[in-house]
Amino acid sequence: MHSFLKDNHEELIRSCNTYAEVINKRSAANPDHVVFKFLPDGVNEDGSLTYQQLICKSKAVAAILQQNGSKGDNVLLLFQPGLDYIVSLFACLLSGFVAVPAYPPRRNRGIERIFKIIDDSEVQICLVSKHIYNDIQRNFSDDENLKGLSWVVYDDISNESSHGFIETELMPDDIALLQYTSGSTGDPKGVIISQKNLLYNSEYIRQSFNHDEHLVGVNWLPVFHDMGLIGTVLQPPYVGGVSYLMPPVTILKNPLIWLKAIEKYRANTVGGPNFIYDYCVQRISNEECKDLDLSSVNVFFCGAEPIREATLTSFAEKFKTAKATHEMLYPCYGMAETTLIVTGGVYNEKPVYLDIDADAFSKNTIEVVEEKGKNTVTLVSSGTTWLETEVLVVDPRTNNKLSEGNIGEVWIGGPTVASGYYGREDESVRLFNAFTSDSNEGPYFKSGDLGFIYNKEVFITGRLRDVIIIRGINFYPSDIEFLIQDNIKELKRNAGAAFSVVEEGQERLVIVQELERTAMRDTDHDYVIRKVRELVSEIMFWKCMILFL
Asked: At what angle do helices 19-29 and 195-209 cross, to 10 degrees?
């Protein structure tokens, strides 16, 4: 028995060695329980899966995979959002094939990323819907990247194929899937996630979110992303709950659809990154809030770093008439390299906020203040560690462990950490096998995130590589982005980037920012640019003055 399962009240779970074993046992114990429902328009159900249907369909797909390869082979999954994607994922998990979830290209967009994933993961099999297969063959059939692939078309597989499925022995360390990072700062990297990683993280979420068989999720997050995959697809069948899934584009068009679905299906666990809460506040009118009822929700999880106090409080206040409360808000922290979650808050308690001196913060020092003022920064805790997960804060220059209240790089250890990046041994050793210099503690994963620990709470402040240093003062890009977006109404929230470039040996600040749609035609661009410069100049002036005084 895994030690991290000892506090699970279900013998069915405590005796499992792999995530796949949990699903097989759940199916045997409760075959008719509906675990997934699909809402193509975000409102109405169109298709569902019981445990028995999930197992049967998954084994049918797995049997065809077995005809085209063997356990351990990497399988690229290309589907639009829907139950077919779920079945294909579980087909890999139950048979020992390694799932490589991805998002299909749209016309000529996104194909380069797919090519990079194919090359990096060395996939030989592509499991795909007929619609996407036809689209790829029509537009990219002659491309060298696709030659040599075995194509398995989901729509051509009948349930009767499950009779040809060969039961496969699965071990905790078997690779279950490759989670590809966003690739926003370079080529996408495939994080190697094992069956044990999935089992541990599922139990971690269960405990920290206080889940049980009554879990009801209404989820819009992409299945190919770690938050959507681990949090909203693998968690409900793990605890015996149900997940209502909708395409991400549905709520991007109108976030009220998501909140209406939460109300309709009485969801109790929902969430997403920081931006979705801002989006709801901005796009949903006060009039539309009046008849909304969000009282069924226990957890609105927010898994973005850094998480904004203004975002959380604005959401709670905006939807107060819909019975949303501050206690529902649940900040958490994680990444693909740690399967998903690393830290989480305390169920049914308000988020933990910390008021600190802004000038000290710019020098990487934490000075807690008793009362808020103009020179105060409020940080949001991402929670604490659970089970066997460990978080250290380390000086990135010396690799020495830092004491509480000092900002450094966040290092993470425990069964939640993946074994490395697929095919990148040197980088995996450097990042996933780190030891502290002063005490030789390890191994840890070097997250690249900056943060500190205060009263056992973990606060994430930014990215190690993203810190902008101008005139000897540290500036976090997210702070600059928030400053201008919060003070200039013409600028779109969560639609900008601050970064630095080196020019003639000096670091210069660059800001790229979208306008609100309503401001595109009649806005005085010179005024907006001048206002941005004034705001940035003001904060830089005062921080520099503090340094010289």
From this structure: 70
Question: What is the Cβ-side half-sphere exposure of residue 462, based on CA atoms within 13 angstroms?
Answer: 20
| Nearest CA among 469, 491, 449, 220 for reference residue 338 | 449
Half-sphere exposure (CA, 13 Å, Cβ side) for 468?
Answer: 22
Residue 546 is encoded by which pair of tokens? 């503090």
The predicted-structure confidence for 317-357, as pLDDT tens digits, reads as follows 999 999 999 999 999 999 999 999 999 999 999 999 999 99
Burial class of residue 502, CB neighbours in 10 A (0-12, 13-18, 19+): exposed
Q: CB-hemisphere CA count at 13 Å for 124? A: 10
Record the pTM.
Answer: 0.87
Write the DSSP string, 354-369.
EEEEHHHHHTTB--B-
CB 380 within 8 A of CB 307: yes
Longest CA–CA separation in the chain, Å: 78
> Taking the CB of residue 334, how many other CB atoms lie within 10 A of it?
25
Task: State the helix-helix crossing angle for 477-487 and 525-548, rounded to 10 degrees.
Answer: 130
Task: Give the CA angle between residues 306, 337, 116 to the nearest 5°.
Answer: 105
Q: How confident is the model at residue 466 (pLDDT cuts 50, 70, 90)?
A: low
Which tokens in the block code for residue 454?
């205060």
User: Is the pLDDT higher at 524 or at 422?
Assistant: 422
Task: Give the pairing type, strands 98-102 and 150-153.
Answer: unpaired
Residue 294: which of 265, 335, 254 has the closest Cα?
265
* Neighbouring-strand partners of residue 445: 412
What is the Cα–Cα distance from 273 to 460, expressed in whole angstroms?
14
428, 421 Cβ separation under 8 angstroms: yes
Q: Under 8 Å CB-to-CB from 489, ≥6 apart: which residues?
A: 516, 519
CB count within 10 Å of CB 141 equals 9
Distance of alpha carbon 520 from alpha carbon 498, whole angstroms:
21
Sign of the dihedral through C-alpha 400, 414, 446, 409: negative
Helix axes 51-68, 83-95, angle to 10 degrees: 60
φ/ψ (deg, to 5) at 417: -80, 135
Rounded Cα distance between 82 and 88, Å, is: 10
